[in-house]
Each structure stands twice: as C-alpha cells, then as structure tokens.
Amino acid sequence: MSEFLKRTLFTVVAVPFAIACIWYGDWALAALLAILSAVGAWEFFRIARTAGADPLDVIGVPAAGIMPLLAHAHQRNVFTTPPAALAVLLLGIFAAAIWMRGLARKPIASVATTVFGVAYTGGMLSFAYLLRYHDYAVGNRAGAALLLLPFVLTWTSDIGGYLVGRAIGRHKLIPSISPGKTIEGAMGALALSVVASWLYVSQVLRPQAQLTLAPVAVIAFGALISAAVQTGDLAESMIKREAGVKDSARILPGHGGILDRFDGLIFALPVAYLLLDLWLLPAPR
C-alpha cells in the first residue's frame, strides 16, 4: 500500500473520530487528549535520548497523560486546586531523580528534559480541553465550534504554506532547521489563515456559537495563530535535527508520529486560549 493511500485512509477514519470526541467533550475528549499527550511524550523522550539526554520517561509519559485528565477533573469539580497538583507532580519528578538517576547520570538535565517533555505535550494539549469549556462557550455546539477554530487555522496555515511555497517559494526561511520552508510559503500561510479566521468567525462562530471577535481581532488572531503554528513546526524540526531523526515515530500510517502531526497545534492551542480569553465576546443578539 502506498504512503499516500495509507495517509488518506487514516485521515478518513481519524478526522471524524476526532470531531466526534470534540463534539461530545467530557471524558471522551479528555481521554483522547491523554492518549495523544502520553504518546507524544514518549516520542519526545525517545528523540531526546537519541540526542544524548537521559529523561525519566517511565514517569514523564504517564505524567503527560495525566495533564488533560487533571483539566477534566477540575472542570467536573472533582478538585479545585490544579496548581497544587501540578506542583506536586513537578516535585515528584525531581524526587524520582534521586533514586533513578543519582549524581553520576546528570540529574538536573534529566529532570529538566522530563519536565519540558511533560509540559510540551500534556501541558499544551490540555488547552484544547480548556477551550472546549471556555466560560463563554455554552453547550456542545458552542464549545465544539470554539475548539475547532485553532484546529481549522492550523490546517489552513499548513495548506497555505505548502501550496504557496511549492508554487512561488524562492527564498529560504531558516534552511539550517527546515530546508523546505520559504519566506513566500510563510507569508502564504499567514494570509490564508487570516482569510480562514474571518470566514470561520462570521460563518461558524457567530451563528453557531453566538460568539464573535472584533474585526481587527479576527485579522490579528488569524495572523498570530499562523505564526504560532509555523513556530511549532520549526521547533519540532529543530528537535529532530539535533537528534538526527527524520520522523518523531511511525505510529500514524502515512503521517509519522504524534509530534509530526500536532507540532503546530501544540503551539497554537495555548496562544489561541490566551487571545480568545482577551478578545472573545458573546455575539450581540
């Protein structure tokens, strides 16, 4: 089976499943995010180990998976002190280094790599759950529509960058990190994301979720999310280049690994949450 056919078949199955989890929310979305976070952390620690680091992956992988579950528990009012839980989790990783690494195996670097891996995967992906249950998003339709906005802009940015870069790309963006990316492609990604942001807010977010952004905020939102997506893509490329690997893994048929597919979204989600928290408004009735 060709790689293109594998990619197509996987997409046909995975996209409707992901949308169903986003629509239902609750435990289904939390479980999906937990799995993605744990697998993404495993991929990151695998790359880090190839690059010469010695992460505490036996602790970091489940810790990353727990992060979205903590967001779910907080939203369900199971407990109201997530900062304390995160602090205990951080201290637990540091304490584990005493027995699992010791002085001879560079415990500071080990703890730092582990904590970053947990935050980079589980911490960032947990913002998807927070967006789904934003205070202004009342009901499944509003929550799903709001969460899908950064997803749509991530896909749009990727598509715009690829098409424009292939068509007219001449000037390399950062060839030492990503030889295929061009300045023209980056501008195309940004422009298409601004258009997509405008269309999504006017045609989906406002009528379906009764939420809106000011016109200037719509344009700025599309541009900033595209910038975040492209930065996320470059960040993962940098990590892989340091380790000398092509893909983060070969888990997803035709797509590589979790980090390969979600590198841009990992950056887009917290940026989207911050911007929407500042600019999002209920639409006037």
The tally of domains stands at: 2
Q: Strand order of the main beta sheet, please?
A: 1-2
Shape annotation: globular
The largest β sheet comes out as: 2 strands, antiparallel
Name the helicity range.
Answer: over 70%
Short précis:
The chain is mainly alpha-helical and 285 residues long. The protein is 77% helix and 4% strand.
Q: Layout of helices and strands, plus pairs?
A:
Elements: H1 3-24, H2 26-50, H3 57-75, H4 82-100, H5 107-132, H6 139-168, E1 172-174, E2 178-182, H7 183-209, E3 211-212, H8 215-243, H9 258-279, E4 281-282
Antiparallel strand pairs: 1-2, 3-4
Structure description:
- With 285 residues, the chain is mainly alpha-helical.
- It folds into two domains: 1-133, no CATH class; 139-285, no CATH class.
- Helix content is 77%, strand content 4%.
- It is built from nine helices and four strands.
- A two-stranded antiparallel ribbon has the order 1-2. Strands 3-4 form a two-stranded antiparallel sheet.
- A hairpin with a 3-residue loop joins strand 1 and strand 2.
- Helix 2 (26-50) runs antiparallel to helix 5 (107-132) and helix 5 (107-132) packs across helix 6 (139-168).
- The longest helix has 30 residues, at 139-168.
- The chain is globular, with a radius of gyration of 19 Å.
- The termini are far apart.
- The relative contact order is 0.13.
